[in-house]
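Quick log. Single chain, no ligands specified.
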Amino acid sequence: MIGVFPENDRLGRRLVVILRGFPCAWGKCTFCPFAVEQSLHTRHVIEDNRKIIGKAVQLAEEGGYERVAVFNGGSFHELPYDSVEKLRPLARGRIFEVEERSEYVTLDMLETLIGYYRPQRLIVRVGFETANERIREEVLRKGMPDSEMLRLSRLRLEARERGLPVEIWTYLLFGMEGIPEDSVYESLRVFKKLFDGVIAVRYHRYLPRHPRPVPVSGDLARFLEENADLVDWGGEDQWVIGGRKGSAPE
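-> predicted structure:
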């Protein structure tokens, strides 16, 4: 699922721009499907992204979009420089969102991105997925210990003290085997204390090697809708990765 997607939801009227990426440097998360859309060929990545970014700039200007989120199935810093440079007119003066693994997020990195892109506000999304370190490391294999959660929580406060227009958001994964519902409740409570925003994401299974999905109770669904900044349920048209719709095969 690469391309430009207009959205109008709790986060407002915005553009979601999904670029072609190189393989994620970590590449060990047990649930991630994005490897099927990544490429090792630099020319392929650059050419696809030029088309996508060109369309995004056109839509943003014609439609007056003030918020743009850019994703590439990995970390923003893994994009080729050609793509990073061509995003400048899309980011300037807008709320600009990117995804990063936690280890890439430093004060110098935030200052560099703000200086380069001149956004109205920079939002960095980090996929901690759960506040339970055992689940995060043993079940999801994220490679992000609790120390990274606490570091980024402190970092966002330090960035504000320096007057940087920065927010750090995190994802909360639910509906997957190995992530019990009681841990999802607790994770959301913890994340809301540590970060500026929380996006809850319903797990979808794409490949046979991925963990199985599990039902989501009505109580949990209501709790997430009432307390998360956004709940991404991943509709049929939305969850298409590499030509595969999210499903729950047995």
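DSSP finds eight helices and ten strands in the chain.
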